[in-house]
Amino acid sequence: MQPNKPISALDVTVIIPAYDAADTISRALQSIANQTFLPREVIVVDDGSNDNTAGQAEAFKPKIKGCALTVLRQSNAGPGAARNHAISVAASKWIAFLDADDEWLPRKLEKTFAAIEQSKEEPAIIAHDVTVIDKKKEVIYNCAKHHSGTGDPFHAMYRRGYVSTSTALVQRTAVIEVGGFDINLPNAQDFDLWLAILSNSKNQILVFPGAYTRHHNRPGSVQTHTLRRLQCSETVARRYFFVLGIRSGSALASLIFRTIVIHFEALITFRKSRKWFSMFYCAIRLPTGLIQVLFSAIGQKQYTRIDNLGQKLT
């Protein structure tokens, strides 16, 4: 791809859900303005903030020349509802997600569209590695390695697939088809959406190497609720057990593997934060949690996502 290509070549709407993000929203928007290839439009959804988030976003409009910047406001309903709001009015083929406290490197969109052009089959979801910044420590998460095999992409995502929301571009039609983000899940809404999209065997995912997004962990953010994230991840694991059964590979093995992985991830998080009681609780919870997940998943009827969401995006 050549940097002098017309801006209209990037048929992308960037969606930023924002809650009390007055101190970070300008950084996120500046990272979009710095792109070597600009998107068609940017939609910021102020999710009932108590600070000047919307005002800061509005003030950035003159600085992001070449693409439209829209600021929407709603009562506080969570990031999933904010993203759904923006998706319903987005005008582009592709939806890109960027959290208000994250930022992109300048070549993020350029590299993403280069990967799309080089792929044999246009993916429904495309993402890449991510740099996570926590208390000034930077760790690069190699997300691509879990999606580099030739097996069923649904099993790969279900077992160990980690796609940071702020790295992902998704075809809008694929999101609409499954009803958007499940706002009833306090955590793991993105993971649930990726699995819902990949439940359709026609949809593919491409995760390429290179950390073109910087994710900032903030106290009180959704990612910091470790135990709640564990419980929501178990819910998602049960939901898609039926899909595992009609795809290639062992459904039971994937369910067991996934349950162990999410407990292990919680243990590591508790250890790093020195929450010893929580770490001990998580360790002793694994055997019983595994049994509960197995029995509830095996006895569960097929999960019909649209009916359970009680929402419809257009």
Question: How many E-type strands?
Answer: 9
Helix content: 40-55%
Q: What is the CATH C level class of the largest domain, in words?
A: Alpha Beta
* Strand residue content: 15-25%
Chain-averaged pLDDT: 88
- How many domains? The number is 2
Description:
The radius of gyration is 19 Å and the shape is globular. The model is unreliable at 1-9 (pLDDT under 50). By secondary structure, it is of the alpha/beta class. 43% of the residues are buried. Helix content is 42%, strand content 18%. The protein has 12 helices and 9 strands. It folds into 2 domains: 7-223, Spore Coat Polysaccharide Biosynthesis Protein SpsA, Chain A (Alpha-Beta Complex); 225-306, no CATH class. Strands 1, 2, 3, 4, 5, 6, 7, 8 and 9 form a 9-stranded mixed beta sheet that branches. The longest helix is centred in the C-terminal third of the chain and has 23 residues, at 276-298. The protein starts with 11 loop residues before the first strand and ends in a 5-residue tail after the last helix.
